[in-house]
Amino acid sequence: MVSGGQAQRLQIARLLCRQDVYYVLLDECMSALDPVMRATVTQALKVFLRGKTAMVITHSHDTVSDLCDKVLDLGKLAHGEDRAIQSAREYLSSLEHGASATSSAWRALFSRMAV
């Protein structure tokens, strides 16, 4: 039997071995990793995701800042608010300046990594 972190690393390793991948869905992909392994996996994913479209579902602001270009805030979308889609930088800045993170438990984050 493997731990949660080991299972996540195995799944990410399988992804990194794939070729001809253009779209990637990552759902809480680093939630069970320790900080050292998270940094290693983040670097590998940054390289792998270049030129690909990725949808990253996470609660981690670190993952947003490390992997995402745009944020779709599902709480704002559900309430019909303007600016449900923001750049990751704008989204994180709004959190730092005291804006509410929304009541939504899920935030879907879209990333289009530049080549």
UniProtKB/TrEMBL annotation:
The keyword ATP-binding applies. Keywords: ATP-binding, Nucleotide-binding. GO terms for molecular function: ATP binding; ATPase-coupled transmembrane transporter activity. SUPFAM superfamilies: P-loop containing nucleoside triphosphate hydrolases (SSF52540). It comes from the Eukaryota. The keyword Cell inner membrane does not apply. This is ABC efflux transporter ATP-binding protein. It comes from Hondaea fermentalgiana.
